[in-house]
Amino acid sequence: xxxxxxxxxxxxxxxxxxxxxxxxxxxxxxxxxxxxxxxxxxxxxxxxxxxxxxxxxxxxxxxxxxxxxxxxxxxxxxxxxxxxxxxxxxxxxxxxxxxxxxxxxxxxxxxxxxxxxxxxxxxxxxxxxxxxxxxxxxxxxxxxxxxxxxxxxxxxxxxxxxxxxxxxxxxxxxxxxxxxxxxxxxxxxxxxxxxxxxxxxxxxxxxxx
Amino acid sequence: xxxxxxxxxxxxxxxxxxxxxxxxxxxxxxxxxxxxxxxxxxxxxxxxxxxxxxxxxxxxxxxxxxxxxxxxxxxxxxxxxxxxxxxxxxxxxxxxxxxxxxxxxxxxxxxxxxxxxxxxxxxxxxxxxxxxxxxxxxxxxxxxxxxxxxxxxxxxxxxxxxxxxxxxxxxxxxxxxxxxxxxxxxxxxxxxxxxxxxxxxxxxxxxxx
Lengths: 209, 209
Prior knowledge:
The structure is a homodimer.
Chain A: E1 2-5, H1 10-22, E2 28-30, H2 41-46, E3 54-56, E4 62-63, H3 66-76, H4 87-113, H5 134-156, H6 168-182, H7 192-202
Parallel strand pairs in A: 1-2
Antiparallel strand pairs in A: 1-3, 3-4
Helix pairs in contact in A: 1-3, 1-6, 4-5, 4-6, 5-7
């Protein structure tokens, strides 16, 4: 198998951290997003959505969704468990993941992609040249602030996002917060729980993956 | 357990069809989205994101994400399989689901919510009053057209979205297309594969769930 990655991008970082927590190494190919390698015919043949990460299996099948790649590795290598050990646990972790994507990841994406001069007509990842929408950058900033607030409230009562155990939700949450930093959005000083947790998850060796 | 539903809404419809295909019935509570029941303190306590579907388990835990609810039932009741029978199959179906959400569901949502007079300040589901952005309605319409095109191309070579078997991707794809219809977006006449498939999945008794 082969992981198509981009060392500087937030989406594949979620997979890299996940693999590091599992102590797995996978042969990796760097895709030069900055110079548009994702739009070449070769890469489009691999993933018509022109995004990374992509996990190419030995039979040529391609897994193009972050969480599907992580779940695939979790099924193959269940220890340490990062996605839950029972149907209930998996469903609850999945629900938190979805909320993190919704306000955290999509909010940061809208804030960053709709306001960065170098990303004109790149307001969404993928092959279509969607123009920036300034009001969407504004909305993204608001969504990220709400994200900060609910994660902080959640962490007032839990060591990690899903409870007492580190899970994939902490990986996604940390990456979403760091991505929000690209749009100059950082958790306010007074959110002590969020800041305590962010420092702790960032101190894990996996965060450098 | 208890499923919080809204009989007219596309998101819980995905769960209802999934359950119908599994021949499962779950005690259901209708939430009156039209009159804002999702914003009442009672419902917020259940799901602070103010969305349906929600599956409340007997211990009070709440699963608030569509796909997590479906996966939970798939794990409990594996037959008929709708999400894949091996790690590879689950990862590939998950990748198609993610593409369907991305352009199909989010495109339809943006097109509809940002252009419907009755949804002012309701441009996103959830508790925050985000204003409509006309340019986002426009972008949503474009995304849906791309969605139609890739699904049609996919169905030129496959009976169903993931291949020879009906899966959860067909449920999500059909609901996304019907939701796009709320924004008066329908697959063009010339997309014969898409129309053939849409007629076939719509003819299944589950589609009425």
